[in-house]
Design a protein that fits this description.
Blueprint: H1 10-18, H2 27-40, H3 45-58, H4 64-67, H5 72-80, H6 88-108, H7 111-116, E1 124-125, H8 139-150, H9 158-167, E2 171-172
Parallel strand pairs: 1-2
Helix pairs in contact: 2-3, 2-6, 2-9, 8-9
Length: 181
């Protein structure tokens, strides 16, 4: 089976085959992927995937309703939790973004409706030969980044949002020779 070049170990292959690029509409999964993409900034995706189960447990299974209620005590607890990434800005963004996520839901009915409306609810196929051809951001990821920031989100720059669009299947950035393209 041919896969994108970046899927080179068991963990990345499983993510590539069962998550990445598959159109996602589940609210919890949409929030979870936003968290994981934010955590990935400056790190390898493999590192984040290694820690996914730890975050699932520490963050109440990515229940953004509960996370939005986290207080300073819970934040401090998370910062002391073994195995989690100890970046204060990333940890604060998890909580801040849960609150903003709920506000988007109130305003648009769902985060799914909000995010997919940018592409008229249809995945956008790209035609890249290799992973090196894929841009780190584009006009759409820049626009969504700006809009999310207006809604109170943080740690959602254009590069993070581009990766997010790939992860939730808005962008199909599988290499054209990949069997999942």
């Amino acid at each position: 089976m041919k896969r994108c070049q970046w899927a080179y170990n068991e963990r990345l292959i499983a993510y590539h085959d069962h998550v990445w690029g598959i159109p996602q509409h589940d609210e919890t999964q949409l929030y979870k992927m936003l968290v994981l993409e934010g955590l990935q900034a400056g790190l390898s995706w493999d590192i984040v995937l290694k820690k996914e189960e730890l975050y699932d447990k520490a963050l109440d299974h990515f229940d953004y309703h509960r996370i939005a209620l986290y207080d300073q005590k819970k934040y401090d607890e998370l910062m002391q939790t073994e195995g989690l990434i100890k970046n204060r800005l990333k940890m604060k963004a998890i909580i801040t973004n849960a609150k903003a996520f709920l506000e988007i839901q109130k305003q648009y009915g769902s985060f799914d409706s909000f995010i997919w409306s940018y592409v008229d609810f249809q995945p956008v196929p790209h035609h890249y030969q290799t992973s090196q051809d894929v841009p780190s951001s584009d006009e759409l990821s820049t626009q969504i980044s700006k809009d999310l920031k207006k809604h109170g989100f943080c740690f959602v720059g254009p590069t993070i949002i581009y990766s997010y669009l790939q992860a939730i299947g808005i962008y199909n950035d599988h290499e054209i020779n990949c069997d999942f393209y």
